[in-house]
From TrEMBL:
Protein name as catalogued: Radical SAM core domain-containing protein
UniProt domain Radical SAM core: residue ranges: 100-335
InterPro entries: Aldolase_TIM, Methyltransferase_A, RlmN_N, RNA_MTrfase_RlmN, rRNA_lsu_MTrfase_RlmN/Cfr, rSAM, rSAM_sf
GO cellular component, one term: cytoplasm
Species assigned in the record: marine metagenome
GO molecular function, one term: metal ion binding
Keywords associated with the record: 4Fe-4S, Cytoplasm, Iron, Iron-sulfur, Metal-binding, Methyltransferase, rRNA processing, S-adenosyl-L-methionine, Transferase, tRNA processing
PANTHER family: 23S RRNA METHYLTRANSFERASE, RADICAL SAM CORE DOMAIN-CONTAINING PROTEIN
Main location class: cytoplasm
Protein's cellular compartments: Cytoplasm
Coiled-coil spans in chain: none
Cofactor(s) it depends on: [4Fe-4S] cluster
SUPFAM superfamilies attached to this UniProt entry: Radical SAM enzymes (SSF102114)
Length: 365
C-alpha cells in the first residue's frame, strides 16, 4: 500500500541526524531508528520500544516506513531468485539474488528502464521512465532480505550487493550514493565496502565525483577495446571514449586504494570476440589495477546478437591470461527465468522521446 507520507527508509545516517535534530530530538535517535530498520527488520514505529511514546506517535502520524511489494517471484533451477517489484503506475523493476557456496549476491536496480541504450541489453530496449529513490533502492534489499529470511530462517544470506540491475547507477548519482552509504554504514546493513559494487557504462565525470563520496568496488561495462566498436555497443562512448574512461578508473582506484577495477566484457559472436579484440584489451589494461569479467551473452526476445561459443571464450581468456591480465569467465545464472546478465527488463512506461543512440545519430554516422 502506498502512502503520501515521507518515507524514512533510504535516508543515510547524517540525514537522519539532521531530521531528528530538526524535530527537537537528540541525534542518537538516528542510530536507534536505523537499528530497528536494518538490523532487526522492524517497520512499525509503535514496536520501536526505545523511542518514547510521544515520538513514536509523531512519527507514525507524519512519516512512513514503506517497503515495495513483489508482484512476481521466480526461481531458477540453479537457485537464483528474481523478484518483480511494483513501482506504481503499472511499472515494475527487477532484483535478483544469486546464491553461491560462500556468498549470496543481490543485484539491484537503480532506474526504471535505462537511457544508455546498449543494443545487447534487454533493459535498454524498454526505454526509460525515471530514477529510483534511495528508499526504492534500499527497499529492494529489505524485500529480498525479508523474503529470504522467511524461507530459509536466516538473515545473513545477502553478503554482496551489486548495482547491476536495471538502469545506469551513476546517471542517478545522488540516490545511488545515498543508498550505498546505508549499505556500508555499521548503523545500516554494515556490508564491507569491497562487497558493494557500482557498475557503470562509463560516465566519466561521475566516476571522478564518486571518489569524493563513497569507497566501494567499481565495475565498468566495457564490452569493446576499440572506440569505433564501443561507439556502437555502448553509445555513451561517443561522449566519454575509452581513453578518458580508463583515466577516470585509474584515478578512482588510486584514490580509494582499490586493488582492481573490474571490466565487464560481454562476448558477442563475431562482433567483439576475435583475437585482435583480446590483444587490444590486454594492451589497454596491462600493468594496471584491472581484472576482466568475461560474460557469455544471454539472449532475449528481439536481439540480433548471438553468444560466442565456449571454446572461443576460453581462447579469448587465455590471451588475456598470457598477457598478465587477471580474467575470469562468469558462470551464467538464472537465464531460464530471464534473470541473467543483460536480461532484466521489468515493466517500463517509456517517457524518453529519443534514446541516447538517436540523440547521437549524427556522430554515429
Amino acid at each position: 500500500m502506498t502512502t503520501n507520507k515521507n518515507n524514512l527508509i533510504g535516508r543515510p545516517f547524517d540525514d537522519l541526524v539532521s531530521f531528528f535534530q530538526g524535530i527537537g530530538e537528540k541525534k542518537y535517535r538516528a542510530k536507534q531508528l536505523m537499528d530497528w530498520l536494518y538490523h532487526r527488520s522492524i517497520f512499525d514505529f509503535d514496536s520501536m520500544t526505545d523511542l518514547n511514546k510521544d515520538l513514536r506517535q509523531y512519527l507514525d502520524q507524519n512519516y512512513s516506513l514503506h517497503i515495495p511489494m513483489s508482484t512476481k517471484k521466480e526461481r531458477s533451477f540453479d537457485g537464483t531468485i528474481k523478484w518483480m517489484i511494483d513501482q506504481g503506475g503499472s511499472q515494475a523493476i527487477e532484483a535478483v539474488y544469486i546464491p553461491e557456496k560462500n556468498r549470496g549476491t543481490l543485484c539491484v536496480s537503480s532506474q526504471i528502464g535505462c537511457l544508455i541504450d546498449c543494443p545487447f541489453c534487454a533493459t535498454g530496449h524498454q526505454g526509460f521512465n525515471r530514477n529510483l529513490s534511495s528508499a526504492e533502492i534500499i527497499g529492494q534489499v529489505l524485500l529480498a532480505k525479508q523474503d529470504l529470511q522467511n524461507e530459509f530462517k536466516r538473515d545473513d544470506l545477502i553478503t554482496n550487493i551489486v548495482f547491476m540491475g536495471m538502469g545506469e547507477p551513476l546517471a542517478n548519482f545522488s540516490e545511488t550514493v545515498r543508498a550505498t552509504k546505508i549499505l556500508t554504514d555499521p548503523n545500516g546493513f554494515n556490508i564491507s565496502r569491497r562487497r558493494v559494487t557500482i557498475s557503470t557504462s562509463g560516465l566519466v565525470p561521475q566516476i571522478i565525483k564518486l571518489a569524493d563520496h563513497v569507497n566501494v568496488s567499481l565495475a565498468i561495462s566495457l564490452h569493446a577495446p576499440f572506440d569505433d566498436l564501443r561507439d556502437e555497443l555502448v553509445p555513451i562512448n561517443r561522449i566519454h571514449p575509452i581513453e578518458s574512461l580508463l583515466s577516470a578508473c585509474w584515478f578512482y582506484a588510486k584514490k580509494q586504494n582499490l586493488k582492481t577495477v573490474t571490466f565487464e566484457y560481454t562476448l558477442l559472436k563475431n562482433v567483439n570476440d576475435l583475437r585482435e579484440h583480446a590483444k587490444q584489451l590486454a594492451k589497454l589494461l596491462k600493468n594496471r589495477p584491472a581484472k576482466v569479467n568475461l560474460i557469455p551473452f544471454n539472449k532475449f526476445p528481439g536481439v540480433v546478437y548471438e553468444p560466442t561459443p565456449p571454446d572461443q571464450i576460453n581462447e579469448f581468456r587465455n590471451i588475456l591470461l598470457e598477457s598478465g591480465i587477471m580474467a575470469i569467465t562468469r558462470t551464467t545464472r538464472g537465464d531460464d527465468i530471464q534473470a541473467a546478465c543483460g536480461q532484466l527488463s521489468g515493466t517500463v512506461n517509456n517517457l524518453a522521446k529519443k534514446s541516447l543512440r538517436q540523440k547521437l545519430k549524427k556522430t554515429l554516422n
